[in-house]
């Protein structure tokens, strides 16, 4: 019973931390993305098997290898680029 309570407590903390870090992140829906596809860099963070097994992929999305900052630098992305991250 203590393990279940501890797991629940940890999940609550993780949810709080994730929400706190996401405060400054803007969200975009699929219709707005479709209307402005040329304005965004689209990054697909799914792992190999999840990506391969999916029937839904956004044309032109990139899949970074390693550190996203190093990947962005190697691609020459502007510091003020509009980047959309997705994993589903």
UniProtKB/TrEMBL annotation:
Signal peptide boundaries: 1-22
Keyword check for Signal: yes
Alphabetically ordered keywords of this record: Signal
Keyword Signal: yes
Top-level taxon of origin: Bacteria
Protein name: Rhodanese-like domain-containing protein
Naturally occurring in which organism (per UniProt): Halodesulfovibrio marinisediminis DSM 17456
Taxonomic classification: Bacteria, Pseudomonadati, Thermodesulfobacteriota, Desulfovibrionia, Desulfovibrionales
């Amino acid at each position: 019973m203590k393990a279940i309570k501890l797991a629940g407590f940890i999940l609550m903390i993780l949810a709080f931390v994730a929400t706190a870090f996401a405060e400054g992140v803007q969200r975009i829906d699929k219709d707005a993305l479709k209307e402005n596809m040329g304005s965004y860099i689209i990054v697909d963070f799914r792992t190999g098997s999840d990506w391969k097994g999916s029937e839904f992929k956004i044309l032109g999305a990139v899949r970074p290898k390693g550190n996203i900052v190093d990947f962005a630098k190697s691609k020459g992305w502007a510091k003020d680029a509009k980047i959309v991250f997705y994993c589903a």
